[in-house]
Write a structure and sequence with these properties.
Layout: E1 8-12, H1 17-28, E2 32-37, H2 40-50, E3 54-58, H3 64-78, E4 83-86, H4 101-129, E5 132-137, H5 150-170, E6 175-182, H6 188-196, H7 200-207, H8 220-227, E7 238-241
Helix pairs in contact: 1-8, 3-4, 4-5
Amino acid sequence: MFDLSGKVALITGGNGGIGLGMAKGLHQAGARVAIVGRNAIKAQAALLELGEGAIFIESDLADQTVCFAVVADCVAQFGRLDIVVNNAGTSIRKPPQDFTEGEWRSVMAVNIDAAFYVAQAAYPHFKAVGGGKIINIGSVMSVTASAYAAPYAASKAAIMNLSKALAVSWAADNIQVNAVLPGWIDSELTQKARAQVAGLHDAVLARVPAGRWGEPSDLAGTGVFLASRASDFVTGAAIPVDGGYLSRA
C-alpha cells in the first residue's frame, strides 16, 4: 500500500527543511525524486543524502511560465510524473502596517501562486498516467495567525482552501489533493524566526504537548501516506503534523 516504486515525485523547496524531509521519505519508499530550489550548493548536499534516483532542478518558480518549465523538465528527465509536493515557501516578519506591496506580493508569489501553477502544469501529466497525488504544504498558521506574519498566514490559509478546490475539481481524474499543516519544525526558516522574534523558542515548547520542536523527518511518513495507494480515498483533507499544537487550548 505504501510502495512508491516506479513513481516520480517533484518536490518544490526540496533541497532543505520540510521539503528534504518529504523527499527522503518518498525516495526511501521507492520513488524517483526531483527536488526544486534556488540554492544549488544546498541542493548538491541534499542529492548526496538522497542518492541514486534523485535530481535537482534549479528554479525560483517566479511565474507561471517558469513553473510549467520546471514540470516539463522533470517529465523530460524521468518520463512521467505521479506526485507533486508544493513545499516552497518564504516569510517576512514585521507588523502588518509596515509591509510594502512588493513584500506582500513576494510572499504570495512563492507560497500560493507557485503552488497553483505547478499543480496546473502537473495536471495533464497526471492524466497521462491515470492519476496523481498533490501534497500542498500549509502550516498551523493555515488556521491560526500571528502578529508578525500576515502575508504568510494569509498564503497558508489559501493553500488549505486551494487544496480543497483542486480536490473536488480533479477527483474524477483520480487525482488526490491534500494539505499538510506542519507545526513548529526546526528548519532554516524557523531558525530565522527564532532569531527575529523574542521568546519564540520557549513559547513553542510551552504550547506543544509533545514538548519539542518537530524535525523535517517527522513529515516523511505523512508524505508517503498521501503519495501512496494507501490514501486513494483521502482528498481535500488538511492534516496537522504539529505535536498536538492545534489541539491545545
